[in-house]
């Protein structure tokens, strides 16, 4: 670009949005039909840098629109309006087994979008122009209430306004700890949502997994919400992949010999789940379910036998004459961690095995582009499912 040329103008609209909302990235005042690279960069709360980038050519008017133009390489290719977000990965030289998750939902994810000349390595060069955009899990007016006493631990998120609001109980999987970002996002979509912590990271105990704890949670939700239709469980890539009916520690540990490793020494756990699936005593009788249920399955899940578990649930509910209550979503080339839209795909991540206090890297599976598409599609259908069975059923009774 000549010294007399006007500087490029980079815009990201909206510059502040919820994480499940798409944005538009547009660059103007560029040299016509010239190569440029657009890069996104995020410094995580864990201290790691994540990036995505696409190689573009400006059009004859000197514009690049990520929503309308093709990326000819980078971390994504083709016309991908949100490729600068969902294709993020740790920068070269980062620690292994990283997973990008928001810890403090009261603050935004800050993502810097930058423009560089050419398609060559940009990391040692200065950007032509940059802009910071905010991505939020917690929308304006959402109230976060910490729940911490002898009976219950979690974070309660309440939408603004008088209500009434449907209530959702948000559960996570075997990693433990308190994760709130999905609950904050659901509250931003009009639901009172309780993110429940039921054991500390790496410290699973049988007492933490007793059903009495969840009964206390149910009573809390019923007594403290102005309107609570039913409890809706979101857990891993399958909604309630297989609810354990007795303390799982000893039985689960007994199946650890079925863990396999791939060529990168990443552990594959799905055969452990297959073994437990053959034990009737380890399963809740889903034939007793009397409310709508949605199963969201990654068909390349290497961490849990999601599809087989869904098959088992479907078969049991069909036999009980309750198949009409079941909605099932199966996504090819999709792994275990089906997150909210545009979340970076984690094919393998660090995990603390509670029985041995050993840190391993688990393989979760999936291919980045299909996995990202599944996250977007499933989130829209989950929100539709919730509206239909929570909000609509409430209005029908009024």
UniProtKB/TrEMBL annotation:
Pfam families in UniProt: BAAT_C (PF08840), Bile_Hydr_Trans (PF04775)
One GO BP: fatty acid metabolic process
Residue span, Acyl-CoA thioester hydrolase/bile acid-CoA amino acid N-acetyltransferase domain: 20-148
GO molecular function annotation: fatty acyl-CoA hydrolase activity
Domain BAAT/Acyl-CoA thioester hydrolase C-terminal intervals: 250-391
InterPro entries: AB_hydrolase_fold, Acyl-CoA_thioEstase_long-chain, BAAT_C, Thio_Ohase/aa_AcTrfase, Thio_Ohase/BAAT_N
PANTHER family reported in the protein's UniProt record: ACYL-COA THIOESTERASE 17-RELATED, ACYL-COENZYME A THIOESTERASE-RELATED
Protein name, UniProt field: Acyl-coenzyme A thioesterase 1-like
Organism: Poecilia reticulata
